[in-house]
Amino acid sequence: MKVTMKDIAKEAEVSVATVSHVINGTKNITEDKYKKIMRIINKYNYIPNSTAKNLRQKKTKTAGMIVSSFPDSFITEMVYGVEERAREMGYNLLLVNTNEDKNYEEETINLLHSRMVDGIILSPATNDIEYLNRFTDENFPVVLVNRYNNIVRNAPKVTGDNFQTGYDATIHLLKHGHKKIGMIYGVANVSTTDERIQGYKAALDQYNIPFDESYLELGHATVNGGAAAVKSLLNRHSDITALFVQNDLMTIGTIHQIREQSLKIPEDIALIGFGDFASAPIIDPPVTNIILPPDTIGKTAFDALLSKINNPEYTKHIEMPPSLITRKSCGCK
Amino acid sequence: MKVTMKDIAKEAEVSVATVSHVINGTKNITEDKYKKIMRIINKYNYIPNSTAKNLRQKKTKTAGMIVSSFPDSFITEMVYGVEERAREMGYNLLLVNTNEDKNYEEETINLLHSRMVDGIILSPATNDIEYLNRFTDENFPVVLVNRYNNIVRNAPKVTGDNFQTGYDATIHLLKHGHKKIGMIYGVANVSTTDERIQGYKAALDQYNIPFDESYLELGHATVNGGAAAVKSLLNRHSDITALFVQNDLMTIGTIHQIREQSLKIPEDIALIGFGDFASAPIIDPPVTNIILPPDTIGKTAFDALLSKINNPEYTKHIEMPPSLITRKSCGCK
DNA sequence: CAAGGATGGTAAAACGATTAACTAAGGAGG
DNA sequence: CCTCCTTAGTTAATCGTTTTACCATCCTTG
């Protein structure tokens, strides 16, 4: 059977407390006892049971990470950032994907909380996260990442600056002389989309172009979803000369569909995508993207979680600025 | 403070055992006591502490998943498959990325084992996994996924058929008349690479072409790594007319580099990549890929883990066949 | 009505560690 | 030599559940 601390103690003819002290360095132990105990520990490859330790110490060195869509390159790289920083800090990660299911998200938080994770990093499925206050009000550490909502009290947030993202992309297209700019997005009622739309609006406003909601199109965040969305959008507004697509897979679907309609990028339709997928530079034409740094967001989110764990007062909203990578698809060069 | 079963029991004027029986349905409880207890449970939003439960029951409904590289689209989708099936089965996933670090991998297994995960799904960093026998010999459930090594006893394996993958890709190029076929790969000394090389060899053999190791090139599994690898390879063998690239990012780097050298795909160099990245059809020329189904591999791996948990005798090696998606880059159409 | 079987509930021992409080022995100092 | 401190080590409580074994009580049934 599995060897426990008791077994080690028995064989070394000491108490379990002494063994524990040897392992954790919590008390001076005489040289010979120390060596004897260590020898037996190594002999059996003994490693203390973390579950028992966690129960007693009420901490697990584990963080919960809940994402709403997976795999999605942005989310994936964010998870990577979180995992990497967690690993550096000696933490483990309990990863759950909710598939944009709000109810499952709430269940999951309950579950992870009951598993005594030290805190949770959450990219929520919807704006509807009032329920989180039940946890945050009791100072259970929750960090909102990527998406957020200000109805949640007492939680740090780490996100991209999505207003700026929408604004910068739109301004760039406006500067190229476009007036009819369509926007395609993959998820509704989340802060990322909402804020990018606000940025889009603000940019149009600055150029005295009235905002028209029918120039926005919601689709599935997939290649086919992008193709379908652009088809429907162009059907409605054949006067569109530029597009901002908020998701990499949808961007690829968009390019597909535009070619299908025998239109030229950027001559007939200029294009800015979101997120810098690896193949962007070798597509014809190379795709201009506006990007936010997912891995940095992930790492920063874990740092924020640690800050929150160590200081219950900590509630900062950190926003990462976007950057525009211009290639030919927007009409540049 | 946090409410425990004891608190519930006190308020309901029953023993903790009764509360536990109500929650788990392990004993008949009279209607009125049952209702009273449930009312109090709901009032406090009480959820039993999983850590205590896990310790007592010696199971955690948690699987460890250890991968060697992340993010990497193949691995990511595999993780997705595992997570999805785990979720369906009521399991959680403790995800760790070892970044191809063998020592960290061993440490991690020790740690997860001490955390009493019910089993581990491992995509090992190297072939050097003899140490696993320490666990598998004691019937601790370990499933090898993607990469494997037969020195490990008593472990199910779920992988792609990589021999067939190398064979099919090479045969396809040979059928197009190529005789000087280069191969670029991103990791050495792992079963995936080794077996694809074996498949490549077998295909050449069938066409009576002698195998020459210098037609293989190892690079970093990145865009730049792919570019550098193909540069070095073409430098060594300017007679190469076809390439099989074993990784999506490297494929993109390869295309970059080939264009850089003013060569045409597929006229000067035919190309087959591995893994069907979304943009493959819209690159010029569209990229032929040979693929293995990462999400199915992931799901199957979790199923295998469950089988192993329920039946210590279970040790099956499941291999998924590849499929070739032909587009123009290999000279088809 | 006594014996036997269900039935509903509880006490207490696990699970495997950590840690506060205690003890015995040895050494130092007056 | 007595007192007091250190020091090394132990005892036992604790973390929050589950679960076995036991105990009443009530119901049958002959």
UniProtKB/TrEMBL annotation, chains A, B:
Domain of life assignment: Bacteria
**Which GO molecular function annotation, any one, does this entry have?**
DNA-binding transcription factor activity
In the UniProt record, does the keyword Kinase occur? no
Q: HTH cro/C1-type domain: which residues?
A: 2-47
The answer to whether UniProt assigns keyword Iron to this entry is no
UniProt cross-references to InterPro entries, sorted A to Z: Cro/C1-type_HTH (IPR001387), HTH_LacI (IPR000843), Lambda_DNA-bd_dom_sf (IPR010982), Peripla_BP/Lac1_sug-bd_dom (IPR001761), Peripla_BP_I (IPR028082)
Annotated keywords: DNA-binding, Repressor, Transcription, Transcription regulation
- Domain (HTH lacI-type) ranges: 3-57
Q: Which PANTHER family match?
A: HTH-TYPE TRANSCRIPTIONAL REPRESSOR PURR-RELATED, LACI-RELATED TRANSCRIPTIONAL REPRESSOR
Q: What is this protein called?
A: LacI family transcriptional regulator
User: Which organism is this entry from?
Assistant: Thalassobacillus cyri
